[in-house]
Write a structure and sequence with these properties.
Blueprint (H helix, E strand, L loop, with lengths): L2 E2 H8 L3 H10 L11 E2 L1 H19 L1 H7 L8 H8 L1 H14 L10 H5 L10 H6 L16 H9 L6 H8 L30 H6 L4 H11 L47 H8 L4 H12 L8 H8 L8 H11 L6 H8 L3 H6 L5 H11 L2 H5 L10 E6 L1 E2 H8 L3 H10 L9 E2 L1 H10 L3 E6 L3 H11 L8 E2 L3 E6 L5 H9 L16 E7 L2 E7 L7 H10 L2 E7 L6 H13 L3 E6 L8 H10 L12 E4 L8 H15 L2 E2 L6 E10 L3 E10 L2 E2 L3 E4 L2 E10 L5 E2 L1 E2 L4 E7 L8 E5 L2 H19 L9 H9 L2 H4 L4 E9 L2 H13 L5 E10 L4 H10 L2 E5 L5 H10 L3 E4 L2 H12 L7 E17 L3 E14 L3 E6 L2 E13 L2 E2 L2 E3 L3 E6 L10 E9 L6
The structure holds guanosine-5'-triphosphate.
Length: 974
């Protein structure tokens, strides 16, 4: 009877992977994975091989006993290792013995032969039995195949260089220990033989310093320019002759000889021009009498020597001020203060020129010299907590604010002293100013609590087996949803808008008495994030590949996600029921992506399935459970829960509904939860498949949960805390962080309507800047927001930029319309509707709200518009809204909705959108419109009527019916 390799491995008490290897060696081919089956014959072959291996293993034990230099026993190796000096001595001997082999490979190669841990034991005897004199040959290992074998001999012991001599100790001449350290022979190339320092080189083998030592040694004959460098191990080298430190420059403490500075007043100069010499004479005589108090003068240095800052008496100062006012001789001073590098003086704390210019220029520099320099001394190594303000940065580093602001201006950023500096900016400034900054992130409650929760390790005794989380990934329409539906026994595919999955689904089902959690992801290219998220929560990825299509772009992407997540991949070759499909084609393509099918000897399980006929479903399930067995997924149900939010939405009366998967621990009703920037207490939990209420959810369980204050982001991790205040604080700080990040800049007024006009009128060509189309996105779930976002970024071109001013989950609100009106933005409502107030304001202000239910329609429409090709030949004209007050079930007719027309009117022949809980759930033609028993053409606002929809009988009380008609609109921009 066939037996799976992993099961046989269990019987034989071997590792499954090891057994796969053994199968190969035993000549049983095509068994690339532990899931492959072996028939009786193959099992026997494997067992025989193992038996033979055991015998082989037993044989060398005799030789070990015989020979003193057993290949594995580190007896002699121990001798060599025990005394480093001995080792070196041996090396030295060999070096002298064979000095003529300078061109051999570098000694690192001996270490590069690190032993592969998985080397089958049974190989050892054969290898170690190879001729022991080969060590000599090992010095030229690349030359012959035989030469590489002794290198293999040294693979067994883990500690490489020391044990190598023992491992490959030549058995042929055990009595000649001097020949034994053959494997060390590469050391001969080490220049030990050329001089002292052998000890050092052995220690430093492989290190850079030793290599350079070797380089020097090699140059024994060839002269090489000596390089000055630090000795790597100083204790073994003669001390370098002490160089006298250079004498401090005298010029540093003595002022340069100066010419007496004679300054002429304007009057003196003017008088001189008029032939009056008296004014000049007076200035010259005054100058001679004046004490040397100018900077750099002797008085100043005398003061400095006494440890005081040179000060000028009030009287002198006043006199000087008077003298210097307006004198031509003051120009050098002024120039100095204007020099661009004056900030260096300032930074070094020695100047004050900068301040003099500002404060002292007009009002007299003397005052400044009197005061104390208040600038913080510049610090070289600073520790800074981020984010911080410009002021904090400057105070911490001692760099003047003006200097930092100037730098920022140079980078095109107009900042002020209160501006916040982020890490990147701080690093840039620091690099520019040669500062060493140790940037620390602010230690928050988050770091304290969440990190400890994430890092808490579970006790082995607490761990129990959990259900595997299996995610279906693959290209759009390859049959993921159908396959999952068929496995679970439900039908979700039918209800999908546009026939594509736009939400992530997760269900736990019981199969063969075991729980499995399935996650379905959308295949449309827009949902990359959802696929990545699906892959990140999963244990096993099922790659659904349609046999007729093969590997497609999103299949490739899914492969990357699964590989990045490091999870096993099982391929479901779906649609195998289709006639004429060639599964070999898809399998060949798979090999190009390093997914070799197990039937071709690889380790990827490929199951041929058909969601339509049910073919291969059992096998797929069995394979998934087997993989789960192999990996033993475990969790600790007794700890506080943590996991991931897959999706979240705001539902009218129920509040926030979040779909979470518990990854570890148990989540209970009443638990305090923080998830992204939302928090709250778990109010209720329901099963994602049956909607049954749950009191607790253990590991691997997906739940729909209420109780959070705002919808968390899809992909946000959640944690259970014990204090609601802490949860609130953490959520608030995250919200603050993300708001700060997403603050958008100034908006340009370009509306959706005018956008095409701009294009048509060719005004884009005249504009230097890109034309910006501002949009506000509202969606039913977070995942769609990301998908739309991603699609919109693809629409950018050199002339047009689509700017998302705001994106959020939930219906269109008054605030959205206000923002759109202020910034000429268009509101893109994906699967949501505007509330009454928003609708009225939008009408009043002419704000456009575009509604979509399929993502590619949204992006296609915008793309067409951007390309100037949008031809609004058909336009939806909103007619009115009616509220369903009562439902009447009439046999043979169906459901009649008794409605009250709240806005506009309902007209015969229109179409009706059915909205429930703020979401559009369907769009149907109006079948019948009646008042009493009469069929009528139109029902105006404030009246009641009966509405029958065509093809939909599930209208419920409180549904909102929106009537609209499709009008043909003539093109106006042709
Ligand atoms: N013949 C055949 N058709 C299939 C099979 N599986 C799915 N289909 C059809 O393929 C189409 C797409 O199936 P879905 O299950 O929606 O595909 P999907 O991969 O979930 O699509 P997205 O979720 O949008 O990525 C549907 O019309 C299915 O009926 C199959 O095994 N055989």
């Amino acid at each position: 009877m066939p037996v799976r390799i992993y099961a046989l491995a269990k019987d034989l008490k071997l590792d499954s992977k090891e057994l796969v290897e053994i199968c190969k060696k035993a000549g049983v081919t095509g068994k690339g994975s532990a899931l492959a089956s072996l028939d009786d014959d193959e099992v026997q072959r494997v067992e025989k091989y193992l038996e033979a291996g055991k015998q082989k293993k037993a044989a060398p034990a005799v030789s070990v006993a015989k020979g003193a230099s057993a290949p594995i026993a580190p007896v002699r190796g121990g001798d060599v290792i025990s005394d480093r000096g001995t080792a070196n001595r041996v090396i030295g001997r060999r070096t002298t013995g064979a000095p003529s082999e300078p061109a051999a490979e570098p000694p690192q190669s001996a270490q590069a032969d690190a032993p592969p841990a998985t080397k089958p034991v049974e190989d050892l005897p054969a290898e170690t039995a190879k001729p022991a004199e080969q060590p000599v040959a090992e010095t030229t290992p690349a030359k012959t195949p035989a030469a590489s074998e002794p290198a293999a001999t040294s693979k067994a012991p883990p500690a490489t260089p020391k044990e190598k001599p023992a491992a490959s100790a030549p058995k042929a001449k055990p009595q000649q220990p001097e020949m034994s350290p053959g494997p060390l022979s590469p050391m001969r190339r080490d220049p030990v033989g050329h001089g002292g320092g052998g000890k050092i080189r052995v220690i430093g083998r492989g290190s850079r310093s030793s290599q350079s030592s070797r380089g020097e040694g090699d140059s024994g004959g060839a002269p090489r320019a000596p390089k000055r460098r630090e000795p790597s191990i100083k204790i073994n080298l003669a001390a370098l002759p002490e160089a006298k430190p250079p004498a401090p420059k005298k010029s540093g403490s003595e002022p340069p000889a100066q010419q007496p500075e004679v300054r002429f007043t304007k009057d003196a100069i003017a008088g001189h021009k008029q032939g009056d010499a008296a004014g000049i004479d007076k200035v010259v005589s005054d100058e001679k009498k004046k004490p040397a108090t100018r900077p750099g003068g002797l008085t100043e240095f005398a003061e400095k020597a006494k440890g005081r800052s040179p000060r000028v008496s009030e009287a002198d100062e006043a006199a000087e001020k008077k003298r210097n006012a307006g004198m031509a001789g003051a120009r050098p001073d002024r120039n100095r203060s204007r020099r661009p590098n004056n900030r260096r003086d300032l930074m070094e704390g020695g100047g004050g020129d900068f301040g003099r210019r500002r404060g002292g220029g007009r009002h007299g520099g003397g005052r400044r010299r009197k005061g104390v320099n208040t600038a913080a001394p510049r610090k070289e190594a600073v520790s800074l907590e981020l984010p911080c303000s410009m002021r904090d940065f400057c105070e911490a580093t001692g760099v003047p604010v003006a200097q930092v602001l100037r730098f920022m201006m140079g980078m095109g950023v107009m900042a002020n002293i209160n501006a916040t500096i982020d890490q990147q900016t701080a690093e840039l400034i620091a690099a520019d100013m040669d500062l060493t900054i140790d940037l620390k992130a602010h230690e928050t409650l988050e770091d304290e609590l969440i990190t400890s929760l994430e890092e808490a390790e579970d006790e082995e005794a607490d761990l129990v087996t959990r259900a595997p989380i299996v995610t279906f990934l693959g290209h759009v329409d390859h049959g993921k949803t159908s396959l999952l539906d068929a496995l679970i026994g439900i039908n979700v595919v039918k209800g999908e808008a546009g026939g594509i999955t736009q939400h992530i689904r997760a269900y736990t089902v019981e199969k063969d008495g075991r729980a499995v959690t399935f996650v379905d992801t959308p295949g449309h290219e827009a949902f990359t994030e959802m696929r990545a998220r699906g892959a990140n929560v999963t244990d096993i990825a099922v790659l659904v590949v349609a046999a007729d299509d093969g590997i497609m772009p999103q299949t490739e992407e899914a492969i990357s996600h699964a590989k990045a997540a490091g999870v096993p991949i099982v391929v479901a070759l779906n649609k195998s029921d289709l006639e004429g499909v060639d599964p070999m084609r898809a399998m060949t393509q798979m090999t190009e992506h390093q997914l070799t099918p197990s039937e071709w000897g690889g380790d990827t399980e490929v199951v041929r399935t058909s969601a339509t006929t049910g073919m291969g479903l059992d096998e797929l399930l069995e394979t998934l459970l087997t993989v789960a067995d192999l990996h033993e997924y475990r969790a600790n149900p007794s700890r506080k829960a943590l996991g991931v939010c897959l999706e979240a939405e705001q539902q009218g009366d129920r509040g926030v509904i979040a779909k979470l998967v518990v990854q570890n621990g148990t989540l209970r009703v009443g638990d305090i939860l923080v998830c992204g920037s939302s928090h709250g207490r778990v109010r209720a939990m329901t099963d994602t498949l049956t909607n049954a209420p749950l009191q607790e959810a253990g590991p691997s369980t997906p739940v729909n949960l209420t109780g959070l204050d705002i919808p968390p982001g899809a992909g946000d991790r959640f944690h259970v805390l014990s204090d609601i205040t802490q949860a609130r604080e953490i959520a608030a700080s995250r919200e603050h962080g993300s708001r700060t990040e997403s603050l958008s800049g100034v908006t340009t007024k370009v509306s959706f309507e005018t956008f095409q006009e701009l294009l048509e009128q060719g005004r884009l060509g005249e504009q230097q800047e890109k034309t910006k189309l501002n949009v506000i996105i509202r969606s039913d779930v977070r995942g769609s927001l990301e998908a739309i976002d991603k699609e919109l970024t693809k629409l950018e071109n050199p002339e047009v930029e689509v700017r998302v001013l705001q994106r959020s989950v939930g219906g269109v609100t008054l605030a959205d319309v206000t923002l759109a009106s202020a910034s000429d933005a268009v509101i893109l409502a994906f699967n949501v509707i505007p509330d009454d107030a928003a609708r009225s304001l939008a009408d009043e202000r002419g704000v456009e709200i575009r509604r979509y239910d399929v993502i590619y329609k949204l992006t296609d429409e915008i793309r067409l518009m951007i390309e100037g090709r949008l031809r609004p030949e058909k336009r939806n004209v909103e007619l009115g809204r009616a509220l369903v007050k009562q439902i009447f079930q009439i046999s043979r007719i169906g459901t009649i909705a008794g409605c009250y027309v709240a806005q506009g009117s309902i007209q015969r022949g229109c179409r009706i959108r059915v909205n429930r809980d703020g979401r559009t759930i369907g769009d149907y033609p109006l079948d019948a419109l009646r008042r009493g028993k009469e069929d009528i053409k139109e029902v105006p606002r404030g009246m009641e009527c009966g509405i029958k929809l065509s093809g939909y009988n599930d209208v419920k009380q409180d549904d909102v019916l929106e009537a609209y008609k499709i009008e043909e609109v003539a093109r106006t921009l042709d």
